[in-house]
Each structure stands twice: as structure tokens, then as C-alpha cells.
Amino acid sequence: MVFQDMIESVGKVVDAAGVVAIVLGAVISTLVAGAAMLRRSSPEDVYHRYRQWLGRSILLGLELLVAADIIRTVAVAPTYRSVGVLGVIVLIRTFLSFSLELEITGRWPWQSRRDDGMQPAAAPTGGGYGPGVRPTVEGTQRPIP
Q1: How many Å is the Cα radius of gyration of the chain?
Q2: How many CB atoms lie within 10 A of CB 61?
Q3: Do 98 and 62 contact (CB within 8 A), yes or no?
Q4: Of 97, 111, 86, whose CA–CA distance to 57 is shortest?
Q5: What are the pLDDT digits (tens) for 56-74?
Q6: pTM
Q7: Where are the bilayer-spanning segments (predicted)?
Q8: Cα 92 vs. chain centroid, distance in angstroms?
Q9: Are 53 and 24 in contact (CB under 8 A)?
């Protein structure tokens, strides 16, 4: 197998991994949201968590797809045309990634976390978060009201 063929194969594998990440993330997010609805969770809460998990899987897939494009374009005899096409693809996917990040977290990737007074969760010892405290999705601890 020639080097270029091997690089092309690696690019295809990374491409496939990107598609699998998106599809698997969509399926798992949908199943988890459906299970939460059956447990009679708040529809609004289920909706927001569903969008977050779905968005994260799409982001992961997009990053893998960009990596595959870079591998195939740069590692195999780049031309001005192939690098230009890669640049356009990366710009479009980067815009999509930034848009999804803003949608998921409510902030741009370069912005620091909002100061909501919460401290990062300490590593649990003894298998728990302590009395009167529950963990949240973001990894912070909130007192139980």
C-alpha cells in the first residue's frame, strides 16, 4: 500500500467516525429524552437537555469531519485549489461549530464561563457529594432547597 492510499484510508476512517458520532449521538439523545418523558420529567427540561446532548454530538462529529478533510487535503499532495476548498469547508464547519456552541452553552467559545456564584464541584470522596448537596450537569454543586 502506497503512502497516499494509506492516508486516504485514514481520512475515510476519521470521516466515518464523524458520521457515527453524529448518528449515534442523535439516537442516544433521542432514547434518553424519550425515557425522561416516560418518567414524566418536565417537558421543558427534557427539551433543553436533549438539545444540549444532540448539539454536543453534532459538534464532535463536525470536528472529526474537519480533521478528516485536513488529513486528506494536506497530507496528500496539496494544491492551491485543494487547500482553497479545504479552507472554505473549514470556515463553514467552524461557523457551524461556533453557532452550536453558542446555542448549547449560551456563550461564545472564547468567552469565560458566566459567574453565577457556583464553584466547580470538588472530587467526591466516599461516593457522595455530602449532605444537602446535589450534583448538576455542569459539574457544580447546588444546595438542596
Answers
A1: 20
A2: 21
A3: no
A4: 97
A5: 899 899 889 989 888 888 7
A6: 0.64
A7: 16-38, 58-77, 83-104
A8: 17
A9: no
